[in-house]
Design goal:
The protein is built from 16 helices and 16 strands. By secondary structure, the chain is of the alpha/beta class. The chain folds into three domains: about 130 residues, Response regulator (Rossmann fold, 3-Layer(aba) Sandwich), CATH 3.40.50.2300; about 160 residues, Rossmann fold; about 70 residues, Helicase, Ruva Protein, domain 3 (Orthogonal Bundle). The strands form five sheets. A five-stranded parallel β-sheet has the order 2-1-3-4-5, sandwiched between helices. A five-stranded parallel β-sheet has the order 7-10-13-6-14. The chain has a two-stranded antiparallel sheet with strand order 8-9. Helix 4 links the parallel strand 4 and strand 5. Helix 14 packs across helix 16. It starts with a strand and ends with a helix. The structure holds adenosine-5'-triphosphate (ATP). InterPro entries: AAA+_ATPase, AAA_lid_NorR, CheY-like_superfamily, P-loop_NTPase, Sig_transdc_resp-reg_receiver, Sigma_54_int, Sigma_54_int_dom_ATP-bd_2. Keywords: ATP-binding, Nucleotide-binding, Phosphoprotein. This is Sigma-54 dependent transcriptional regulator. It comes from Terrimonas ginsenosidimutans.
């Protein structure tokens, strides 16, 4: 059932609108001036607002502007008296969905409300679709470390420099790699990803370099490897710290000579590939333990980008929460829920694993279990301290 907020200083108008709309099955809240209206608007996510233009304290136009800064997705319909049709038209230009005149005409009122709600669901649908077709997800975060990462990406992306991205699980290493590719001159070429930890040691060479038919028992047909697939583009070697020493030797050769050989073949193939690698391990420690080749480390780490854990960039949490709220509510096909300052503060102070997926899961849980506005109490009940 849709929630509507009526803001009008005339009690009689509020009463009439409430009667008509509750009869139609809407749930109503009332406010008697713009200031009270704004307070309610902040506390709860409405599906629609009906707002008078001329009111004490905060007038309709000011309300429209402030509400737009809080949540621009909620349609606002202005209620205009005789003397202020021009202002109502101006309000529509400034983003109001439409206006109705006083005294409200029943049919026009209901049709306008229904159309506005339909538009909201279209807007939500469009957002979901846009997100699905957009190539790379936005990298959220204005904290000092994130700003530095974004600056580094801008500087190094257009060069062909190899990059080693370090950081714990789920901190956004892959996203960094995607943005480097997107902002590089190779963005028309492919971005091919290999998760070195997920491939059994004995198959990694064939995965990276391909193989000829019959080169080993299960090689029933010829196969093109990831290096070849990434030709003209970028190869993202994720979890490089888990690669076997023999595969490391071959990767090193590919990087040194720009050539690869398919398993079981005797001729070389030239490849033009930019390599970006990522790891959650301390690679130099792995070198000390003789699990990783120092010469390969040097080849890969021309540029080093370290992505810090979420706990080391808590300033980004409110922005991430806001983005996740938007994404998750859009996925569920509901109007974006709001979150109050107490809840945000608790999330900002929480002891995270550092993995951004954990934050997303928590926001999803809060969206499912909380009312339209997520409060500090919700966080206390649904997000258990670890
Ligand atoms: N700055 C960010 N803004 C928005 N979403 C982000 C950000 N960083 C990471 N994410 C999201 O968090 C999730 C984990 O990110 P990603 O896969 O890039 O991390 P990773 O460090 O490569 O993880 P893993 O170590 O598991 O390979 C993804 O869904 C990603 O889109």
């Amino acid at each position: 059932m849709a929630d509507i907020l009526i803001i009008d200083d005339e009690k009689a108008i509020r009463k009439t609108l409430t009667e008509i709309l509750s009869f139609e099955g809407y749930k109503l809240d009332e406010a008697s001036d713009g200031e009270e209206g704004l307070k309610k608007f902040k506390e709860k996510t409405y599906d629609l607002v009906l707002c008078d233009i001329k009111m004490p304290k905060l007038d309709g136009i000011e309300f429209l502007q402030k509400a737009g800064e809080i949540n621009a997705d909620i349609p606002i319909i202005m209620i205009s008296g005789h003397g202020n049709i021009e202002t109502a038209v101006e309000a529509v230009k400034k983003g109001a969905y439409d206006y109705i005149s006083k005294p409200p005409d029943l049919n026009r009122l209901l049709i306008t409300i229904r159309n506005a709600m339909e538009r909201t669901s279209l807007v939500t649908e469009t957002k979901v679709l846009k997100r699905k077709v957009s190539r790379v997800q936005e990298m959220i975060g204005g904290s000092a470390p994130m700003q530095k990462i974004k600056e580094t990406i801008d500087k190094v992306a257009p060069t062909d420099a190899r990059i080693l991205i370090t950081g714990e699980n789920g901190v956004g290493k892959e996203l960094v790699a995607r943005w480097v590719h997107e902002k590089s001159n190779r963005n028309a070429g492919p971005l091919v990803e290999v998760n070195c930890a997920a491939i059994p040691t004995e198959l990694i060479e064939s995965e990276l370099f391909g193989h000829e038919k019959g080169s080993f028992t299960s090689a029933i047909k010829q196969r093109i490897g990831k290096f070849e697939q990434a030709n003209g583009g970028t190869l993202f070697l994720d979890e490089i710290g888990d690669m076997s020493l023999s595969a490391q030797a071959k990767v090193l050769r590919a990087l040194q000579e720009g050539k690869i050989t398919r398993v079981g073949a005797d001729k070389d193939i030239n490849v033009d590939v930019r390599v970006i690698a990522a790891t959650n391990k301390d690679l130099l420690g792995e070198v000390d333990d003789k699990n990783f080749r120092l010469d390969l480390y040097h080849r890969l780490s021309v540029i080093l980008i370290h992505v810090p854990s979420l706990n080391d960039r808590r300033d980004d949490i409110p922005m991430l929460v806001d983005q996740f709220l938007e994404d998750i509510c859009a996925d569920y096909g509901i109007v974006k829920k709001s979150i109050d300052d107490d809840a945000l503060k608790l999330l900002q102070e929480y002891n995270w694993t550092g993995n951004i997926r954990e934050l997303r899961n928590v926001v999803e849980r809060l969206v499912i279990l909380s009312a339209k506005s997520i409060t500090g109490e919700d966080v206390k009940s649904y997000v258990m301290p670890r």
